[in-house]
Amino acid sequence: MDSAPTDTTHLDWGNVGLGFSFILFNALISYLATTRSRILGLVALVLQKVFETNNPWAVGGIACLLNLLGTIEAVVNKSKKRYNYMFSSVLFGMLCSTIPVSIIGIRYAMAIEPFWKPEQYIPIVGMLCGNTISGIVVSVSYVLREIYDNRDKVEMYLAFGASRFEACRPVAREALRLALTPTINQMSVIGIIAIPGMMTGAILGGSSVQQAARLQIIIMFMISASTALASIITTITTLAVVVDSEDRLRPDRVDVREHPVWRARNWLFSQAVDGVKNTVQSCRGLRRKDGQNGAAETERLLG
Questions:
Q1: Is the pLDDT of residue 287 over 90?
Q2: Which of 106, 91, 96 is nearest to 59 (CA)?
Q3: Which of 132, 235, 288, 293 falls between 20 and 30 A from 170, CA-CA?
Q4: Alpha carbons 239 and 144: distance in angstroms, whole number
Q5: How many C-beta atoms lie closer than 10 Å to residue 302's C-beta?
Q6: What is the DSSP string of the chain?
């Protein structure tokens, strides 16, 4: 006779809680997606007001705001190493690249007059800022890593009498190559492997395929020009800071710590956790004291 099956798996409420954590994870992802959607809806509301006013000062303000937010993203969130006056130099590089390229490209290449029409100018500036951030972060990160971690070659060039620009030329060349590689790769496969978003949007908007393709080509040229110009400016300013006018390396000007924003966040979080721990310990101490007092009172009454 066959023996009765035995239960070899023992599940408790901890296993059930672990299974429930998957639902909590899905809820967290849904909450984050909803938050992003609300932010996008708020941006759409603001842009709708700007489009309705058709004011060049409002368009310029939005363009400057996009560059400011892009600078914050590049300096605060993306960069692991920073140097003195990095925020101002990155902002200067973005403004000197996205604004002139967008004005020249829209006015002359796209033949739109006036160039500050909100429906054309703001989306193009947004695309330029988004792609320029990547080039700036790659170039600056490479320069700081070479100067801070691998500075032997630069020090050797300086020791043999080279100027700071001659010593840093290989670093700058490699930084610019790395910064422009994603844009060049994107241009090499555009239209062959992937149809870009601007071209797809123009086709869906009713434009002909030829006009959409020409528009996308102009946009890609503007993106590559803006990325190259911003990367060159930020690379030169970075090298000018970390190698001073007396041809000396200055690794002391490189900050490898987290950004002060994140350090303040971590400090506030640690303070909140310590406060909760102290509160819990105080509550446990009061409960233990009340228990001891109750036991003593019971012994006194029974005694």
A1: no
A2: 106
A3: 132
A4: 9
A5: 6
A6: -PPPPP------HHHHHHHHHHHHHHHHHHHHHHHHHHHHHHHHHHHHHHHHHT-HHHHHHHHHHHHHHHHHIIIIII-SSEETTHHHHHHHHHHHHHHHHHHHIIIIIS--SSTT-HHHHHHHHHHHHHHHHHHHHHHHHHHHHHHHTS-HHHHHHHHTT--HHHHHHHHHHHHHHHHHHHHHHHHHHBTTTB--HHHHHHHHTT--HHHHHHHHHHHHHHHHHHHHHHHHHHHHHHHHHHB-TTS-B-GGGEE-SPPHHHHHHHHHHHHHHHHHHHHHHHHHHHHHHHHHHHHHHHHHHH-
Distance CA 136, CA 90 (A): 8
Find residue 112's DSSP bridge partners: none
C-alpha angle with apex 175: 64 to 218, nearest 5 degrees? Answer: 50
Return the higher-pLDDT residue of 29 and 87: 87
pLDDT of residue 94: 92
86 CA to centre of own chain: 15
Tokens for 250? 């200055």
Task: Tell whether the model's pLDDT for residue 11 goes beyond 80.
Answer: no
Residues 279-303 have a mean pLDDT of: 66
Nearest alpha-carbon partner for 184 in 228, 133, 238 = 228
Residue among 61, 140, 141, 67 at smallest CA distance from 101: 67
Look at residue 44 in the predicted model and tell me its pLDDT. Answer: 73
Q: Which of 73-87, 212-226, 255-269 has the lowest mean pLDDT?
A: 255-269
Question: How many residues would you count in the chain?
Answer: 303
pTM for this model (two decimals)? 0.74
What is the phi/psi pair of residue 80, to 5°? Answer: -85, -30
79-122 pLDDT, tens digit per residue, is 888 888 889 999 999 999 999 999 999 988 888 888 888 888 88
